Amino acid sequence: MNILLIAPAAGNWRKIARRPFFNGKTFRFSMLSLLSVAALSPKNAKITIVDEQTEDVPEGPFDLVGITAMTAVAPRAYALCDHFRSKGIPVVMGGYHASLNTEEALAHADAVVSGPAYGAWEQVCADVQAGRLERVYHGDPSATPPVHLPRHLIAKDQYVTVSATFATLGCTNHCQFCSINRFHGGQRHTRSVADMVAELTAMPDDFFVFVDDNLTQDRPYALELFKALEPARKRWITQVSIDIAEDDELLSAMRAAGCMGVFVGLETFNEENLHAQDKEFNKPAHYREAVARFHAHGMYVEAGVIVGFDADDANVFRNTLRMLDWIRIDAIQLAILTPLPGTVLYESMEPRIIDRNWEHYDFRHAVFEPRHMSAADLQAGADWIIRRFYSPWRILRRVPRWAAVPGGLRHCLYILALNLAYYGRVRRFHIEGQDPAKPATGATHRAGKKSLRAA
Ligand code: B12
Ligand code: SF4
């Protein structure tokens, strides 16, 4: 059986890896979706995995094509579905977008695997071999994921690391803008600590990424996992929620297990916004102290920050940038609020949506009418924060601070590389923007002259 598995890429991201500099490598760290599907395929199958960020999609011949898609790449995924179906090859979609928008995906794919691949993909392969195919297959969320993935199927040199894994899946919080809760049906699944140790000790790299949505949500499990990981002496990064900063025992265990950095969803500095999104467990008043506590334990902090919530007006951009400097954050992933189809946010925002091109649902486009500013202002202000936060001057100003975080040169180089990669993105995608609360330079100048004349 000849199987092609595709991770599509859209717009600027397609074949970005071919560029010598600023080629997105720092952000390519997980092909776990397709590696997991590959691991479930028949043992004698010939499997080709293609990441469109790094290479072209081959023509075949293939017996089966599997495509993964986040919402932002769904249109590209559909084009690929249409292409292979027109050649008579069965095409199956899986992943976040197809699981949460199954009817839409079925207009392009022969079948959809909804939820995890475990238990479903094996059946898909058997059915294709038997010359039949159901429309929808449901994976088994409680299945035990394979311990060893066929990582040799992807080109190691194209990724910052091929050693990505997950110990847990899902999150029991209900933040309205997030797809995780809906995708996992509010459930959380943990892998056995023994499986984690077996997988991680066999990994070739000594740096890896936990792609978990909220690794420490089950505290006893996390403590047990970290204790077991200590002897492996690996270095890793992951995603956690900010409230764990108060937990010294947990932070110490993370540090001892090799954690060098965390991604936390701060989202906003406005409590009203947090409340409206069911994320009131974030306390903006504690952000600065929380970051300091992570630093004291030798961990850098990258924050997810979102602009465009209903309580945000044109001043949010300047205030956010000021607060980000003040809390001494090390890196940010700045997003424009995006109502991903399948989320609670999408349902509540439907009437205000002005752009339904899923390719624009990449957290970089204003796709709805905000309450207290225009969509154009939201776009300009978000771009302005990104450009300012990653200006060479601001990055340079952060260096002495990073040097003071315990962990040594290697940790310091890691966070510097991340900042430079974001700076590269600003340059590569010509991110400019403008603070909507401040008139354009010419206008400021004119207004200044006018007020001088008035004086
Ligand atoms: C790694 C990652 C990335 C990487 C991409 C991968 C890479 N090559 O390095 C990068 C950094 C590029 C990325 C970018 C973005 N990401 Co992202 N990303 C993730 C993350 C953290 C891990 C994905 C992963 O490896 N999961 C582990 C695997 C095993 O699980 P899985 O992907 O769900 O796959 C299972 C099933 O879904 C199913 N399955 C999946 N695909 C297929 C295909 C077939 C054929 C079959 C049968 C089954 C199947 O089987 C798998 C095994 O059970 C997830 C969150 C998460 N924990 O999943 C977010 C996530 C997927 N990303 C998300 C988003 C929103 C984005 C961005 C739009 C915004 C951003 N945050 O920057 C951009 C998109 C950029 C673009 N234009 O393409 C959302 C997607 C929501 C949605 N509805 O689309 C997620 C869920 C995060 C979240 N909290 O909401 N991301
Ligand atoms: S945003 Fe984070 S804390 Fe909220 S539901 Fe999603 S994964 Fe959980």
Describe the structure.
The protein is an alpha/beta fold. The protein folds into two domains: 2-138, Rossmann fold; 163-428, pyruvate-formate lyase- activating enzyme (Alpha-Beta Horseshoe), CATH 3.80.30.20. Helices cover 37% and strands 15% of the residues. The protein has a six-stranded parallel β-sheet, with helices on both faces. Strands 7-10-11-12-13-14 form a six-stranded parallel β-sheet. Strand 13 (300-307), helix 12 and strand 14 form a beta-alpha-beta unit. Helix 7 (193-202) runs parallel beside helix 8 (219-229) and helix 8 (219-229) packs parallel to helix 9 (248-256). The longest helix is centred in the C-terminal third of the chain and has 20 residues, at 409-428. Cobalamin is lined by residues 10, 13, 27-33, 36-37, 66-68, 70-73, 92, 94-97, 113, 116-118, 121, 139, 166, 178-180, 211, 213, 340, 362-363.
Which fold does the CATH topology of the largest domain refer to?
Answer: pyruvate-formate lyase- activating enzyme
The amount of helix comes to: 25-40%
* CATH architectural label of the largest domain: Alpha-Beta Horseshoe
Lateral strand order in the biggest sheet: 2-1-3-4-5-6
Rough outline:
globular
How many DSSP helices?
A: 17
- How large is the share of residues in beta strands? 5-15%
Question: Quick one: CATH superfamily of the largest domain?
Answer: tm_1862 like domain
Count of extended strands: 14
Oligomer: single chain
The low-confidence parts are 443-455
Give the CATH class of the largest domain: Alpha Beta
Give the biggest sheet: 6 strands, parallel
Distance separating the two termini = 82 Å
Structural class: alpha/beta
Total count of domains: 2
Average residue pLDDT: 92
- Global Rg: 23 Å
Bound molecules: cobalamin, iron/sulfur cluster
